[in-house]
Amino acid sequence: MNSDHKFTLAVGALALVAVLLVGFAVTQTAPRISSPPTTPEATVTDTAPATGKVDDAVSAFLADVEAEQNLLLEEESDLDLVTSDANAAGEFGQAYDENEL
Question: Given this model, what pLDDT does residue 78 score?
């Protein structure tokens, strides 16, 4: 091997080591993304024991309807947050109008 090949091989080996060291350093210092705390999506509501009375059955049914409505309202509020974010992102690219200030 002549000296040009030896020099190229040495420079290539040093470049490979440098890339590996930088890659290792970046992966070690990168911030870890933590997941948000999980909350149960749907909670199981306690049902009233079966008594055979119509009033108890209607009360249990109304309680279930109310719990379902609460879940739907939470989902709608989440949807409102998403659409407001999408609208804000869409408005971000609009031209500046000094008269709006």
Answer: 75
Residue with tokens 């020099």: 7
pLDDT score, position 21: 86
* Residue range(s) defining the domain that contains residue 26: 1-30
Per residue, what are the HEC states of the chain?
Answer: CCHHHHHHHHHHHHHHHHHHHHHHHHHHHCCCCCCCCCCCCCCCCCCCCCCCCHHHHHHHHHHHHHHHHHHHHHHHHHHHHHHHHHHHHHHHCCCCCHHHC
Does 52 lie in the same domain as 90?
A: yes
Separation CA 34–CA 31 (nearest Å): 9
Q: What is the pLDDT of residues 22-70, one digit of tens each?
A: 887 777 765 666 666 666 555 555 666 778 888 888 888 898 999 999 8
User: Could you tell me if 48 and 56 are in contact, meaning their C-beta atoms sit under 8 angstroms apart?
Assistant: yes
64 in Cβ contact with 45 (< 8 Å): yes
